[in-house]
Specification:
This protein is mostly beta strands. The protein has one domain: OMPT-like (Lipocalin, Beta Barrel). Helices cover 12% and strands 61% of the residues. The chain has a ten-stranded antiparallel β-barrel. The longest helix is centred in the N-terminal third of the chain and has 25 residues. It is elongated and about 85 Å long.
Length: 277
C-alpha cells in the first residue's frame, strides 16, 4: 500500500510539471499600465479689450506761461462739436486672484475761454481767449483680489500710475485794438495711484462694474471714479452703460516765464463695448 501511494505521488508531480507551461501559455498576458497623461491646468485668465464711448463735460482752468488763468466749461451735449479727435481704449486681464490693466484716453479740444486780463488788456473792450488742449492720459495698474465674503463679488485692491501729457495753446485777441497774442506750453508727468476695481455678477447675463482710485505727487492730484451696469450678449461680447469722472490738478513753475497751471474735471456718461477672450 505504501509503495502504491509513493508511486501515485510521483506520477502526480510529473503531470503537474509537464502541464504548467501549457497552463501559463493559456493565461492572458499582463500589460504594464500606461503612464498617466497630465491634463493642462487652466490658467483662469480672462482678457477684455474695451472701446469706451465717453462723452464727458469738461471744466478746465488753464494757465499758460505768463498769461492769467483762463477757464473753459463745455457740457457733454456740446462736446462733439468742440473735439478735434478722441481715442478711448483699455485692456484688462483678470482671474480669481489677480488683475492688471492699461487704459488710454487721448483727446484734442478747441473751445472759447473766459478770460479777464489786467487793466492794460481790457481797456479796449476786453480780451477774447481761445484754448486748444491736446491731452494724453495713460493709466496702468495691477492688483490682487481681497478676501471679502460676498458671493459673486470679485473685489481687487489695485496700485499703479497715471501718465499725463498735456499741450495747451492759448490765443488772446482784442476786438477793438486789433492785436493778438498766443502762447503754447506743454508738460508731462506721472502720478502714482491706489484704489480698487470690482465686478459683481448678478446672473449669467447681468453684472455691475465699479472702480475708484486716487493719487498725486509733487503739487499734483488726480482721482477717478466709475460705475456701470453690464450685459453679456454672447460669451465673448458684452456692453456697459454707466458714469465716469476724472480729476487732475497740476502746477509747475517755469524758470523765466510764469508757470504751467492745469486743473481739469471730466465727468459724464460712458457706454462701452467689450470683447472678452
Amino acid at each position: 500500500m505504501r509503495k502504491f501511494i509513493l508511486s501515485s505521488a510521483a506520477l502526480l508531480t510529473a503531470m503537474l510539471a509537464t502541464s504548467a507551461p501549457a497552463l501559463a501559455a493559456d493565461l492572458p498576458s499582463v500589460k504594464e499600465a500606461p503612464a498617466p497623461v497630465l491634463a493642462p491646468i487652466p490658467s483662469g485668465w480672462r482678457f477684455e479689450a474695451t472701446v469706451n464711448g465717453w462723452a464727458p463735460s469738461i471744466i478746465s482752468n488753464v494757465g499758460v506761461a505768463g498769461f492769467p488763468t483762463s477757464s473753459v466749461d463745455v457740457g457733454f451735449f456740446k462736446i462733439l462739436s468742440k473735439l478735434n479727435g478722441v481715442v478711448p481704449l483699455s485692456l484688462i486681464a483678470r482671474n480669481d486672484t489677480f488683475i492688471a490693466g492699461v487704459d488710454l484716453y487721448w483727446s484734442a479740444l478747441s473751445a472759447g475761454a473766459s478770460f479777464r486780463g489786467p487793466a492794460a488788456l481790457t481797456t479796449f473792450g476786453g480780451v477774447n481767449a481761445n484754448l486748444h488742449t491736446a491731452m494724453t492720459i495713460l493709466t496702468g495698474f495691477g492688483g490682487v483680489r481681497l478676501p471679502l465674503q460676498i458671493a459673486n463679488l470679485n473685489f481687487y485692491g489695485i496700485a499703479g500710475a497715471r501718465y499725463f501729457g498735456v499741450n495747451n495753446t492759448l490765443g488772446l485777441s482784442a476786438p477793438v485794438a486789433g492785436y493778438g497774442l498766443s502762447a503754447t506750453q506743454g508738460k508731462d508727468w506721472v502720478d502714482p495711484i491706489i484704489g480698487f476695481a470690482s465686478r459683481y455678477v448678478i446672473n449669467e447675463k447681468w453684472f455691475v462694474d465699479a472702480e475708484a482710485d486716487i493719487g498725486g505727487y509733487n503739487k499734483s492730484v488726480t482721482w477717478q471714479t466709475f460705475a456701470a451696469v453690464g450685459y453679456n450678449w454672447t460669451q465673448n461680447i458684452s456692453s456697459t452703460v454707466g458714469f465716469r469722472a476724472l480729476y487732475v490738478d497740476y502746477e509747475k513753475a517755469n524758470n523765466f516765464n510764469g508757470s504751467f497751471r492745469f486743473q481739469q474735471t471730466l465727468l459724464g456718461p460712458q457706454a462701452t463695448i467689450i470683447y472678452a477672450f
